């Protein structure tokens, strides 16, 4: 009897399932294979128009979502702008190579591939964004030449929500690789970012005014910051990142401009810095124009391999005018926890906590730090504390200097 009841229930359930499944509207995406829509993978025909038109068709599609597919092959692409809002979600699958113009003057915009005002954008694939930066790097002399050419970043996102990138490679950007401005709820996983260690300003991932960002399983090696976190960015979770070569994971620089916003709620965990100039870095301008707060940061389970300055809080950052080497930073740094940070430091000063005299760092917690000096100078690692209030526990190499 129980058996019959059971069988009947199972039958009912499966009937119900079939009914539900068959009445649901199809949500298979409409596929736009770029080759079938006029793109030519010969590495020299400019596909910018073809891509822009495909984007427009995909973006205005109402009856289903869209999937733009870039198959294997080399698609030369001048500057493109992919602008929303779109009617539906869009997948952008890149298995081929998108090749940027080698001459920087052939990209007539700030960003080579730029997404704006889009929600639910899912970029993935095994393909490559080849920024062809080599010809541009020697032209990057804006610090001494006011007539310097403007170099484009590889891929930009502005006013983009609920989106993600999974799996692609970005190679040899002219300036930064990926730039995010006013982006909320965005995930980055399995991405590879590569440029030579001597390529100027080739930041890996750069964020401003953004929130709820997850970065994981990503390998970044460039000539500048692996990740740069700027004004107004909150709620970032960075894990399983390999950074190097490069300048580490940097918050800032902050304080230079007057309308800057607080930076808070950052976690960096299970990450390796290998051969970088800095590891964990916060930099604020010595003579600052804005009074903001940097707070609630956790760095944990972090390995440093031959890192120049593994832990470097620098509130005396003053690279060039308009910074003046006088006065104190007005950026308040507080609630910072560093736990289980270990490995090797090329500088003797493995822990540098150089805070502002006007706004001393508050509530800095060091737990289990083990950073050995392995540079050319003799002697073991040291710590520097200026205007910092906090406490330490567990293993402590170098000996801490918190008051
Ligand atoms: C994106 O998210 C932010 C923060 O949640 C919100 O203020 C903004 O209106 C959203 N933008 C769009 C286009 O949905
Ligand atoms: C991003 O990842 C988080 C945590 O895994 C998840 O909850 C969220 O839904 C993801 N968002 C997107 C847009 O993929
Ligand atoms: C660190 O970088 C060096 C030099 O590129 C490399 O040989 C080594 O395998 C890397 N170590 C780790 C743990 O990634």
TrEMBL record:
Molecular function, one GO term: polygalacturonase activity
InterPro entries in the cross-refs: Glyco_hydro_28 (IPR000743), PbH1 (IPR006626), Pectin_lyas_fold (IPR012334), Pectin_lyase_fold/virulence (IPR011050)
Highest rank taxon of the organism: Eukaryota
GO biological process: carbohydrate metabolic process; cell wall organization
Cited Pfam families: Glyco_hydro_28
UniProt keyword terms in alphabetical order: Cell wall, Cell wall biogenesis/degradation, Glycosidase, Hydrolase, Secreted, Signal
Compartments where found: Secreted, Cell wall
Family: Belongs to the glycosyl hydrolase 28 family.
Protein name (record): Pectate lyase superfamily protein domain-containing protein
